[in-house]
Write a structure and sequence with these properties.
By secondary structure, this protein is an alpha+beta fold. Helix content is about 25%, strand content about 25%. The protein is built from 3 helices and 9 strands; from the N terminus they run E-H-E-E-E-E-E-E-E-H-H-E. The strands form 3 sheets. Strands 2-3-4-7-8 form a 5-stranded antiparallel sheet. Strands 1-9 form a two-stranded parallel sheet. A two-stranded antiparallel ribbon has the order 5-6. Strand 7 (about 115-120) and strand 8 (about 125-130) form a beta hairpin. The two termini are about 25 Å apart. The structure holds nickel (II) ion. Nickel (II) ion binds near residues 99, 100, 101, 141 and 145.
């Protein structure tokens, strides 16, 4: 089932996200819905709070970028309870990012190139891997969502000032978007 995407300004994006245990209700269905929603909206990553569920689940499929980044071919990951350790010694690289929850805005974000990623998969098997390059960026972006952080929180103060009005309008539901969006209830556009 395709779910609506919760948009900047909605409190669900700024709420705590719970650790997921194997008895989490309808977990398989939630993950399937996150995948379906992400493909429908043409995203490369999605975090549960973006579909209104405050749980520590991320889905990533970066295969579509394999033309520019051959190492991303067939890379698809369900991350449950991911934990990131950023290698602060690794180079910090600036690249443009966007987000399904912040439609129409793309801004440069600086992130480190290398992380250690620990997570559980859908069967709750433990994984521990070094992740580098573009995938490390996507993982950091998605895991930020689990810690209530959006990429626009990480841009320069000047850029933030320049998009302030757009963000305020977005929070009020005043934004054009090609998929079904869910806005903050008290701000809903008439
Ligand atoms: Ni995002």
């Amino acid at each position: 089932m395709i779910l609506p995407i919760y948009i900047y300004g909605h409190p669900v994006l700024r709420a705590d996200n719970a650790t997921v245990t194997p008895d989490y209700p309808n977990l398989k269905e939630l993950i399937e819905n996150m995948k379906e929603t992400m493909y429908h909206t043409q995203g490369i990553g999605i975090a549960a709070p973006q579909v209104g569920v405050n749980a520590r689940i991320v889905y990533i499929d970066v295969d579509v970028l394999a033309e520019d980044f051959p190492e991303l071919k067939d890379v698809r990951m369900v991350l449950i309870n991911p934990v990131i350790d950023i290698d602060e010694e690794s180079p910090a690289v600036t690249r443009e990012e966007g987000c399904l929850s912040v439609p129409g805005i793309h801004e440069n974000v600086q992130r480190h190139e290398k992380i250690r990623l620990r997570w559980q998969d859908e069967e709750f098997n433990e994984h521990d891997q070094i992740v580098e390059g573009y995938l490390a960026r996507v993982v950091q972006h998605e895991c930020d969502h689990l810690d209530k952080t959006l990429f626009v929180d990480r841009i320069s103060p000047i850029r933030k000032q320049l998009i302030r009005k757009k963000l305020n309008n977005m929070a009020k539901g005043d934004v054009s978007c090609s998929y079904h969006c869910k806005f903050a209830p008290h701000n809903r556009k008439k």
